[in-house]
Predict the structure.
Amino acid sequence: MKITQAFTFEAAHFLPKVAPSHRCRNLHGHSYRVELRLEGPVDSGTGFVIDFFDIEKAFAPLHAQLDHHCLNEIAGLENPTAENIAVWIYEKIRPALPQLAAVTVFETRDCYAEYEGR
Ligand SMILES: Nc1nc2c(c(=O)[nH]1)N=C([C@H](O)[C@H](O)COP(=O)(O)OP(=O)(O)OP(=O)(O)O)CN2
Ligand SMILES: [Zn+2]
C-alpha cells in the first residue's frame, strides 16, 4: 500500500551556481509543497500503513527549520534546488520513517523534483 502526506512551507532562496544572468541567482521566494510517500503493509489492527499524525510529528522539526527561512542559510542547503531539497528532506526524515519511499518537492505548481533514495 502507498500513502502520501503533503506539507507546505514558505521560503526564500537563491541559486548560487547558475549563471550570473539567470534570474534565480537573485534572492526570491516560493510557496513550496512537499509530498512524503510511504509504502508498506496495512496493519490489520489499525488499518494504517502508519498514522498520518506520526508522519506529521516526524516532519514538524524540518518544517520549523524550513518555513519562513532563507534556505541557503540551512546547513546542507547552500545550493537549494528542488532536487537538493528533496534529498535533504529524505535523508533527514528517513530514520524516523523507515517506510519512506519518496520525497517530492514542488517549487512551483508545475515544477517538482522526486527523490526515491537514488
Ligand atoms: N532543475 C531545476 N531547475 C530550476 C530550479 C530547480 O530547483 N531545479 N529552480 C529554479 C528557480 O528556483 C526558479 O525560481 C523556479 O521558478 P520559476 O520557474 O522562475 O517560476 P516562478 O513561479 O518563480 O516564475 P513564473 O513567473 O511563474 O515563471 C529554476 N530552475
Ligand atoms: Zn527559485
About this structure: Helices lie at 52-66, 82-93. The pocket of LPXRUNBV (ligand 1) is lined by residues 15, 24, 28, 81-83, 107-108, 111 (CB under 6 Å).
